[in-house]
Amino acid sequence: MKNIYLIFVVTLFTSIGFSQKFVENGIIEFEVNTNLKKMMGDDSWDEKMKETMSDLKTSYYTYTFADNKSVFKFDRWSPKTRIPKYEKEADEENVWYFDLNSKTTTMQKQVAGTNFVMTDSVMKIEWKITNENREIAGYNCRKAVGKIFGDVYVFAFYTDEIIISGGPCAINGLPGMILGLTIPKLYTSFVATKVDIKNIAAAEIAPTKAKKVYSEKELRTTLTDVTKDWFTWGDDELEKKKRKDMFFWNAFL
User: Fold this and answer.
1) Residue 207: exposure state from Cβ atoms within 10 A (0-12, 13-18, ≥19)
2) Which pLDDT does position 235 carry in this prediction?
3) What letter would DSSP give residue 211?
4) DSSP 23
């Protein structure tokens, strides 16, 4: 009888092990929400602009991945989104490419109407994994808290059923794919709405090409020089620092 029970237990756990599938390639759709009004100031110009805008900037992005490489880019706008044209154009141009085999990233970001392409090492993030769990897009996810840019906290939910160590925009470094992400200081959240498991052609995952490619240090120096007079107006020093910080966080995230 004991032998029969032992065989049953071994068979059960073996079946469970073989039935569990780990996703290595596919396309993940993310809904991205940003509260632009909270990011804006409270002067008369900003207050006037707020009257013409929707409360949230809502868009959809796709994360295409295979062979430990990925591309995260804009797909479409929510019809409920009402924001200035220049805000839309910037988001539509941004592309993030990751090669997690070589730990490198190539990012195209539109800053002040100009597209900049940067290639450098992937962002290093300090993560602390918690015991909180949540289901997102049909996957069991575990919560982790990370810190970037010194004092900006990010809250992520990742699944180890999707084995790439990736996530939306420049966020990465967990033992699985991030399907939910919140960045409170940027009033932004990313939530996976669906996961399409499919074979991906290698040509679909490639970095953006450009005549001029910056390193992170070079791009930071360039943007610092270009914007040296942008954050000097106004008497509120904390507000000026906030505007500058948010500009650079958005530029490199």
Assistant:
1) buried
2) 67
3) S
4) B
- Domains (range + CATH), the chain: 23-215 (2.50.20)
Query: Cα dist. 150→49, 153, 165, 228 in Å?
Result: 31, 9, 22, 22
The answer to whether 33 and 6 are in contact (CB under 8 A) is no
Tokens of 251: 């530029």
User: Cα–Cα distance between 161 and 20 in angstroms, integer?
Assistant: 8
- Tokens 């592309």: give the residue: 95
CA distance 13 to 84: 56
| 3-class state of residue 92 by DSSP | helix
Using CB atoms within 10 A of its CB, is residue 60 exposed (0-12), middle (13-18) or buried (19+)? middle
The number of residues making up the chain comes to 253
Instruction: Please provide residue 156's backbone torsions phi and psi, each rounded to the nearest 5 degrees.
Output: -125, 150
Q: Which residues contact 102 (CB under 8 A, 6 or more apart)?
A: none
What letter represents residue 166's amino acid? Answer: G
Cα–Cα distance, 100 to 166 (Å, whole number): 8
Q: Give me the pLDDT at residue 229, please.
A: 83
Predicted confidence (pLDDT) per residue in 196-249, tens digit: 999 998 788 999 999 999 999 999 999 999 888 887 776 677 877 888 898 899
Burial (CB < 10 A; 0-12, 13-18, 19+), residue 166, is: buried
Using 70 as the pLDDT threshold, list the residues of the chain that sit under it: 1-20, 37, 40-52, 234-235
How far is the C-alpha of 96 from the C-alpha of 64, rounded, in Å?
11
Based on C-alpha coordinates, what's the Rg of the chain?
A: 21
pTM of the model: 0.87
